[in-house]
Amino acid sequence: MIAAPALSASLLVLTLAIALPLGRALGGMLQESLGSSLVAEKAAWNWDASWAAEFAAQAQGLGKTFTHEIIGFGGTLKILSGIADNQPLNTTLAGAVAAYSVLWLFLTGGILDRLARGRAVRAAGFFAACGGYFGRMLRLFVVMGATYWALFKWLHPFLLTRVYDHYTRDVTSERDGLIVRVLLYLAFGLALFVANLIFDYAKVRLVVEDRRSVIGALGASMRFLRRRPLRAFGLYLLNGVAFLMVLRVWLGAAPQAWDSVAWAFLVTQVYLLVRIWLRLAFLSSEIVFFQGELAHAGYTARPPHVWPNSAAAEAIENLRT
């Protein structure tokens, strides 16, 4: 990802552009509530629990997200906990997440195309790939959305409610109940992992092989994983370990309530950049694994869109070099 600095920087700017209006809106609410009082001076250097409780009682919309859990590593834990417990998003945040998802969906084809080539492409070529693959990614997104919706709608309550209640009905030890719940979280996480793995390789096959059919790409993805499950799982596990290592560093480096605004902003942006690198590394490793198994390392089906050279012109150039 260091070899694609423009891609990483653009994704960071995109993330900041989505988050900045929300941050400014929330900051305006806080400024209106605090004013120039003595409480404002105290809140500027530490968390004021009494004022925060008063603010939360009258907050609406985005203001309801301002809780003690957003400080330091708490925000990350809140997100992970919300996913594990299937908690609904704040309506305003849900809109921002949807907008970010659509933008990421549009960019996915171009990102995969860039990573599969392993070399720089011009902006025209990148966005041409984004547009060229967008329809396919959109159809795949519909299948993904339906799958994840079904998992959270039916499988999650089945495991964490019905199954959990069944096995803990006569349990007297809190430790035993916790073990059962952790095992059920792992079972649900395994279902998400399998679905995510299938969809990831479907995206790879759509781009690298220039497939038109989303159903065909999903079938090809499942066949690919069925024939090499241990290596695919091992690669996913390595990426997961890298993610946990980043979270461990973030646990110690996350800014606290008494840190300066400049320092908190800088540390947070570095963390977001590392997360973007991690996501790109995740996709790159899957592409390289696929190319190593079914094609040579430099293969990608779709020629780059470099105006005014045509696909035929690049094909001739590739043969020459």
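That was protein one. Protein two is written in the same sequence-then-structure order:
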Amino acid sequence: MTHSTPSLAGKTALVTGSTSGIGLGIAKKLAAQGANIMLNGFGEYQSAMNEIAAMGVQVDYHGADMSKPSDIEDLMAATAKRFGQCDILVNNAGIQHVATVQDFPTERWDAIIAINLSSAFHTSRLALPSMQASNWGRIINIASVHGLVGSAQKSAYVAAKHGIVGLTKVTALENATTGVTCNAICPGWVLTPLVQKQVDARAASLGVSNEEAKRGLLAEKEPSMQFTTPEELGDLAVFLCGPASGNIRGVSWQMDGGWSAQ
């Protein structure tokens, strides 16, 4: 099916944590539909900017530390200044730490709650007024299957992602009679640089190959035995920005290979 103009032409998408992995995958899919992109993250960003600029859209980068409300305010102001306003907000920035509750370092807990949960509140509160004024907006929170179920040794992450699911519902309800929607995407295992590190650690500690470590990781949780890809998540984000999803509100959409169906 061809469109004379890309479906998101003239819109601007801010994707947090988008220099690699899921965030970059989503940013590229939105750019392919004509959206201008504001990238953010701690990774090397020039290659991501080049890739997106090659799609014929405007792209910029802001290095906000998503644990700092003042940095987030600067990011939102810079997005508005550069592109007019933020039409599509994808809250994707996230970090992970694994430890039992009694051994969990308090500073790691605080950092995970700040980056994985509070940052989405700060970006949303700052993006909503202009979305409401134009009566169109899409907030897509990248939660996790861990927004719906728990796993041992991931207390902060699971708490933050459950929080994201709750924030998504409330944001959706408050804007239910408007053209502004808010939904969450809940991936299972995605082979991002973050997860590859877990695979490498598993391979090393068990003395097995990387492929075997991947299979072991998937076998524990994901019935499909395959990773979800950043491209698949990007396609779902594009759908949630489209006209068919105008009445999808407050949903947490699993892309987890059956993990949460068990």
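The chain has two domains: 12-188+228-255, 190-227. Keep this in mind for the problem set.
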